[in-house]
Amino acid sequence: MAAILMIDDDIELCQLVADYLAMDGYQFDMVHDGVSGLAKAKSGNYQLVLLDVMLPGLDGLSLLKALRTDNYCPVLMLTARGEDVDRIIGLELGADDYLAKPFNPRELQARVKAILRRVELAHHDNNQTAQLLDVNQVALNPRNRQVQCQQHDVSLTATEFQLLEMLMRNAGQLVSKETLSQQVLGRRLQLYDRSLDMHISNIRKKLSQFTDDEKIQTLRGSGYLFLSGPL
């Protein structure tokens, strides 16, 4: 069963989450400061990190930035309700999702399951039979989860990889935001939810390091389209 690390200085909340997730059989560790949390998150012993933004010693956003230099363990950010800036920055830095405090434990459970499902797909889904995708100078290999743009390696989180794979499998066709949200994020698209936009923005930035050509087109209010060739 997956091992989860929660980095949050609210000890009572950590214990509540531990008790709730224990019902699903998850292994659970908790740390209450940023410095110790970063060390544990980098250990490679966890399949998911629940990360609070406000932490003593090292704040959550700084921790995430440091973690993403060489580690792509999925991260679910825990933010104060109404702190949209923290959510946007967290997604820009590579968080897989966010949840506003106070949250319903059932919602946390659903987010955890959705993220871990993406991780499971990243390691096992069709690895032996999935076909290499090579579209518009971007190559995506589902077997080893590698992406190259003009033969340069591109590092993506599990969420970014799955989004790009879905868009490339439908190259030249519009994929709606609702479809992407349901099939990749594991939830219905919600009003004012910027998660998809930020993940797509991150993919664009990473690809743009190696090409000036637009790869992903936004159809405002509708969805995204991976271009099958240069404009």
Automatic annotation (TrEMBL):
**Where does this protein bind DNA?**
130-228
Any GO BP: regulation of DNA-templated transcription
Highest lineage ranks of the organism? Answer: Bacteria, Pseudomonadati, Pseudomonadota, Gammaproteobacteria, Chromatiales
Per its UniProt record, what SUPFAM superfamilies does this chain match? C-terminal effector domain of the bipartite response regulators, CheY-like
Query: What CDD domains would the database entry show?
Result: REC_OmpR_CpxR (cd17623), trans_reg_C (cd00383)
For this UniProt entry, what is the primary localization, expressed as one broad class? Answer: cytoplasm
Q: What is this protein called?
A: Two-component system, OmpR family, response regulator CpxR
Instruction: Give the matching PANTHER family.
Output: REGULATOR OF RPOS, TRANSCRIPTIONAL REGULATORY PROTEIN CPXR
Give the UniProt subcellular location, in the record's own words: Cytoplasm
PROSITE patterns with a match to the protein in the record: OMPR_PHOB, RESPONSE_REGULATORY
Which species does the entry assign this protein to? Arsukibacterium tuosuense
Q: Which Pfam families match?
A: Response_reg, Trans_reg_C
**Modified positions (4-aspartylphosphate) in chain numbering:** 52
The UniProt record lists the Response regulatory domain at 3-116
InterPro entries in the record: CheY-like_superfamily, CpxR-like_REC, OmpR/PhoB-type_DNA-bd, Sig_transdc_resp-reg_C-effctor, Sig_transdc_resp-reg_receiver, WalR-like, WH-like_DNA-bd_sf
Domain OmpR/PhoB-type stretches: 130-228
* Keywords assigned: Cytoplasm, DNA-binding, Phosphoprotein, Transcription, Transcription regulation, Two-component regulatory system
Note the superkingdom of the native organism: Bacteria
Q: Name one GO cellular component term.
A: cytosol
GO-annotated molecular function: phosphorelay response regulator activity; transcription cis-regulatory region binding
